[in-house]
Amino acid sequence: MPTLNRRSPRRLWLGCALMFWLTLFLTSAASAQQQKLISCKAVEERTQPEGCWIVANKPLGKLPAAVFWTLDVYPTRESAEKSSTSNSTVVLALGKVWLFAVGEKPVLTSEGSRIAQIGPLPVKQDEAYTAQFMEGILEPGSVSRTHVHSGPEAFYTEAGESCLETPDGKQIGRKGIDVVVPEGVPMELVATGTETRKGIILVLHSSAKPATTMVTDWKSKGLCSGSM
Known about the structure:
Blueprint: H1 8-35, E1 40-42, E2 51-62, E3 68-74, H2 77-82, E4 88-93, E5 96-103, E6 113-118, E7 128-138, E8 147-149, E9 153-159, E10 161-166, E11 169-174, E12 179-181, E13 188-192, E14 197-206, E15 212-214
Parallel strand pairs: 1-2
Antiparallel strand pairs: 2-7, 3-5, 3-6, 4-5, 7-14, 8-15, 9-12, 9-14, 10-11, 10-13
């Protein structure tokens, strides 16, 4: 009859504990990997509040030397439509009716409330542009894919916080602190802090090129991980 090893139960317990922590680690890693897949989709594909959704596209043609993104809120869609001009777009986002104007600074009508004015945005005088507007609702820890745009990108934050890393370092965006990134700069955005990040994004891209291109030749240094 073989001799029993008295240490076997202890080894069995240690093995089970190791398997438990290994499974937990792999589950966490898989969850983090899923977060890396966040990218902006057409609003028609929306199935949940969270995510990044393209809510409008507006061809603008060539723009003046000083370009600003003006964000006004109106009580109704009808009142916003009455105040709309050739370079503005009425958008429903974050539960509000917005009038977004891209170009020279517009005059605010009596029914509207001015929320922000971001700029000047760096544009080329001989380029025809299209404005793409997106609504972003991201839980803390959500991470975008690494990408570039064929024109400047501007971020307005309504609530929460974001950290944007580029080759030049990182920028923190929160209410009252808007972020602008020039054309062709690779970037990675992370929703930081403890509150759901809610904001609106403008990509003012070349009409002859895709608004967004995923890239693999630049990797973030994880500068935003310390901001979470």
